[in-house]
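Hi everyone,

Forwarding the result from last night's run.
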Amino acid sequence: MSRYTVFYKSILAVIAVFALFAFTKKLNNTSKKSINKKEVVSVLKSSIDTKVESVYNALQANEFELPNEICFEKALKGFYSLKERGVVKNNILTLIDFSLSSNVKRLWIIDLSRNMVLFQTLVAHGRNTGEEFATAFSNTPESFKSSLGFYVTGEVYNGKHGVSLKLDGLEKGLNDNARNRAVVLHGADYVSESFIKSYKRLGRSQGCPAVPVKYVSEIIEMIKGQSCLYIYHPSISNSSLDDLIS
């Protein structure tokens, strides 16, 4: 073997070592970037959870009860997402917890600017959604069932139920037929303590979140103007926020 051949082989060996070193370094850097990205996501999630927990702990109940923390957490995270996108225009959050009996006050109106519960009242679910408890939900017209998820409040109008508030569903396949179904917030005589005493449960709607007649004007005044309304039930998908309509 000539000395030139040995020389060239030595050069090639050195080049191979440097190439291997560079590749390994790049691989390590890529791995670190991937880890760092996961760490950042984890920190962000932790930050949001901490913020939600902080807001809940600071929430002023006034003379009302506080909503369930899990229910509030889901509502607030969706509210932040919708507010960031400009879908909702003010800091009023209406929360309906359909995991509760219809015989208790399960609608809350919360002012997030002041961290304060403004109101709490009874609210009906759809006649085919259940008796005392809400158990079945639908986005289908004429189903007479309630739809879960996030809504934004629309126009105020006077209809067959008197002053009412239109709602736009913001989740595809879950409640985006709300306007076509004429799912609105309105007052109803069957939403009252006297009805519960007579029938052992609250009356039911055709799918609308119906509230007591004596409070409907006050409620609409508080939540009109593109505010966020969230209807919760434990059966709702944890990934529903991904399906929010922009």
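The chain has four helices and eight strands.

Cheers,
N.
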